[in-house]
Design a protein that fits this description.
Chain lengths: ~300, ~280
């Protein structure tokens, strides 16, 4: 009797209960994701971006200064948008498979880390890197726009002052036209628009990567979804017009609209770049919609990921 | 909750979740889309003709949300056509560009400028063509520019720059003073209209047959409105009309004093590094 008592292993009393959700653990995973992405030398693409901006800043086509500034902005912000969503897809698609390959995932999940914390941490890390990259790209293009704007204003002012036909009002009008296409605080909203789009793309990609068998599959499907999500408004009009609003086509269009995010909605940076006035109420609604996408796609990812055996 | 999770296949739950979210967000997104288009922050989908005319890469770019980038790329392509004086190709390229970015006035202005000013000028000097053909194409291009401008104005009803470019085509190429005056007149009061359009409206009205009295009333009204309008051209035009309309001498405006310059604006003189409009040059 005493022998059997001696052989029974003594179990440790349970330690403090693991909280359902810990921001500290999410922060740790997000920080390690950022380190992981930085080690992949992802920021090198900033060099390519800088080259694009410098190249477009030195196009010498005969056009007005305002038009040239508008072109610099369009190319810079278009490239920023492209880099942001492409980066969001590729980096998110690589992270979970990479953790599996390195066996880091087993180490993390054997600790008292909830799967939702892991997913939120990974997504947070990606979004942080996307945000920092966008800010860096914005800084590069802001320098170029400001430099060109100052040069154009100086040259235009000198030329118009030298020509006695122009009154002070006309000179001021012309300079205001240039300034309107120059560096303005509102351009920050265009950066925000690209960030919101990249966030939704990253959330959809993390959802796909929870059940995908390879990174390649995730990347291809994410890019396809992105293209469909961008085109479905255009395609809807086209199909409905072609088929005389056929019931089957209408249903098909509805299914696509319901299942695939409408990415085109997040392209409002184009209007901001063109100098249109910003309605901040609409921008904040877009922010809330993005929040909705992040929450829903994280929950869906969790639904797939929660029982996944590794 | 656990029972549902255990009994229901995950795929079904995921699809149900996606569908539920889709049903909730669809009306919200539709409303937001309408608002964004109204605020001109989002571009409406390109027209069917534009999509048919686009090359495969341009179409892919457009579908990928890179409309602005595609438009810039096409602008460079159009410049290549301009260098080669390939006006038909240039016009087709700008048709796509303006379909991609219909709210960008600069595209319309450049298109009108290329077709209405450059292509017509090229027809005046292109000796590879017989004269009758040059004349025919000259008018065809000038009228095409007018048509482009009308489409541009329909798309951007508040645009002063498109109207000013159209006025240039009427003034320089079609030599139609009445139409020039009408277009300058339409420009008055638009948000980006330059101050000279008010005077130009009158100058060209003065040269429009049958409108001399109206032009005289308008220009002398401008003259009386402010001493700042006592500009040499305005005085010369009024003098010409006074002679033409036989206005009695007491009612005529005084001759321009050659020593008296038009009154300067009473705004304070800008600092050496300050440009008009309060712009500071670093």
């Amino acid at each position: 009797m005493s022998d059997s008592n001696a052989t029974t292993p003594t179990l440790r009393p349970p330690t403090a209960k693991v909280p359902l959700f810990s921001l500290g653990r999410v922060w740790t995973i997000a920080a390690s994701t950022v380190t992981q992405l930085v080690r992949m030398k992802t920021f090198y693409f900033l060099l390519a971006f800088a080259l694009v901006v410098v190249a477009v800043g030195n196009f010498n086509i005969p056009t007005t200064p305002a038009k040239e500034l508008s072109m610099i902005k369009k190319v810079s912000f278009g490239t920023m948008d492209l880099f942001a969503w492409l980066f969001a897809i590729v980096s998110t698609a690589l992270l979970i498979p990479r953790d599996l390959e390195d066996r880091t995932l087993y180490t993390i999940l054997s600790k008292p880390v909830r799967r939702i914390e892991y997913l939120v941490g990974k997504l947070g890390g990606v979004l942080f890197v996307v945000g920092v990259s966008l800010l860096a790209m914005y800084a590069i293009c802001a320098v170029m726009i400001y430099a060109r704007e100052t040069a154009f204003i100086g040259a235009e002012f000198e030329a118009m002052q030298a020509d006695s036909r122009y009154s002070q009002e006309e000179i001021a009008e012309q300079l205001t036209l240039i300034q309107k296409q120059g560096l303005r605080a509102e351009l920050g909203i265009a950066v925000l628009a690209s960030f919101l789009k990249a966030s939704v793309v990253a959330a959809v990609t993390i959802f796909l990567s929870t059940f995908a068998s390879s990174s390649l599959f995730t990347i291809i499907v994410s890019v396809l979804l992105f293209l469909i999500g961008h085109a479905h408004t255009m395609a809807t009009n086209f199909w409905l017009h072609q088929s005389d609003s056929n019931l089957f086509v209408q249903m098909l269009v509805k299914v696509i609209k319901i299942l695939i995010p409408n990415y085109q909605l997040f392209s409002f940076s184009e209007g901001v770049v063109q100098g249109e006035a910003i309605n901040y109420a609409v921008v904040s609604q877009m922010g809330m919609l993005t929040g909705g996408y992040l929450v829903v796609f994280l929950l869906l990812s969790l639904l797939v990921f929660v029982d996944k055996e590794f | 909750m656990n029972t549902i999770l255990q009994k229901c296949p995950r795929l079904v739950l995921v699809i149900a979740g996606l569908a539920l979210f889709g049903f909730v967000r669809e009306p919200i997104e539709d409303r937001l889309r309408v608002k964004l288009v109204e605020e001109k922050l989002l571009l409406p989908p390109p027209g069917q003709t534009a999509m048919e005319q686009m090359s495969q890469s341009a179409l892919m770019g457009t579908l990928g949300g890179l409309r602005s980038l595609v438009a810039v790329f096409l602008t460079l392509e159009a410049y290549e056509h301009f260098s080669n004086k390939d006006w038909e190709q240039l016009s087709q390229t700008y048709a796509v560009i303006t379909n991609l970015e219909p709210n960008d006035e600069e595209h319309w202005v450049t298109w009108i400028w290329h077709i209405g000013i450059n292509a017509t000028a090229n027809m005046e000097i292109d000796d590879r063509l017989p004269e009758f053909e040059r004349k025919r194409r000259f008018f065809a291009y000038a009228l095409e520019a007018v048509d482009i401008a009308e489409r541009g104005i329909k798309q951007n009803p508040e645009s002063a720059t498109i109207r000013m470019q159209l006025a240039e085509v009427y003034r320089e190429k079609l030599k139609d003073n009445c139409a020039t005056s009408r277009v300058y007149g339409d420009t008055i009061g638009l948000p980006d209209a330059l101050p000279f359009v008010e005077r130009f409206h009158g100058y060209f009205m003065a040269r429009c047959e049958g409108k001399e009295q109206e032009a005289y009333d308008y220009l002398s009204g401008l003259y009386r409105e402010s001493e700042r309008n006592h500009l040499p051209t305005l005085i010369v035009e009024i003098k010409k009309l006074e002679n033409f309309l036989n206005i009695p001498v007491p009612q005529r405006i005084p001759d321009a004093d050659p020593d008296k310059r038009p009154q300067k604006s009473n705004r304070k003189k800008p600092a050496p590094n300050e440009l008009p409009g309060g712009i500071i040059v670093p």
